[in-house]
């Protein structure tokens, strides 16, 4: 802090100085839900180095300390980094811990363990629901594919049969055209023969398409 004060006593504005957390001598890896939180210690006047717990008392002091030079007022905001529990207090923490050992003792309490078990169960339920939804989507896609293939095969059969009947009708029409002169001599029976066959083929095609 003295180094900040000696840099420029008349430096205007508010500057934050963060003091690190107390080092952990056990070297244990950080546990889940353990996070760092800032705790404001005090406000320090840059000119004289006096500390005040609140901003209002600091401003009252600086009116006289910076007499005639209020635009140059400066202060340091001292912040101590501590540990907090994001599981028990997800928002702004009201309870902090100076060392990691203090936080681990909190993690062993019944309140913390109960909330940890509830959070783990909720996470497992979410994972199970997500997997169930994915399985349903997969099964639905497989059933849709199975229904599509038979329909496509059925339509192909209909087209093939219609094409065959059309070719047969064209062949019979060609044959009847070649013998048209002889058929005219046959009278009324000859006129009804090709038309009856053509009409019968049309009825078969129509019935086949309707059945499909």
From TrEMBL:
Domain C2H2-type stretches: 43-71
Ranges annotated as biased composition (Low complexity): 120-137
InterPro entries in alphabetical order: Znf_C2H2_type
UniProt keyword list: Metal-binding, Zinc, Zinc-finger
Protein name: Zinc c2h2 type domain-containing protein-5
Organism in which the protein naturally occurs: Lasius niger (Black garden ant)
Keyword tRNA processing: no
GO function terms (MF aspect): zinc ion binding
Spans annotated as Disordered: 115-149, 169-200
């Amino acid at each position: 802090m003295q180094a900040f004060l000696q840099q420029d006593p008349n430096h205007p504005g508010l500057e934050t100085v963060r003091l690190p957390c107390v080092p952990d001598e056990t070297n244990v890896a950080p546990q889940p839900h353990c996070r760092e939180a800032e705790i404001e210690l005090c406000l320090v006047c840059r000119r004289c180095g006096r500390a005040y717990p609140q901003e209002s008392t600091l401003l009252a002091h600086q009116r006289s300390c910076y007499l005639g030079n209020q635009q140059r007022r400066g202060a340091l905001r001292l912040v101590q980094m501590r540990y907090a529990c994001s599981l028990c207090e997800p928002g702004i923490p009201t309870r902090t811990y100076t060392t990691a050992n203090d936080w681990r003792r909190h993690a062993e309490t019944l309140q913390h363990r109960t909330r940890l078990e509830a959070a783990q169960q909720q996470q497992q339920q979410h994972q199970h629901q997500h997997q169930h939804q994915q399985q349903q989507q997969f099964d639905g896609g497989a059933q849709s594919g199975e229904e599509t293939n038979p329909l496509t095969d059925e339509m192909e059969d209909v087209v093939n049969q219609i094409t065959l009947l059309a070719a047969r009708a064209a062949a019979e029409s060609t044959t009847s055209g070649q013998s048209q002169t002889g058929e005219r001599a046959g009278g009324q029976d000859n006129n009804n023969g090709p038309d009856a066959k053509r009409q019968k083929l049309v009825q078969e095609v129509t019935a086949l398409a309707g059945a499909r």
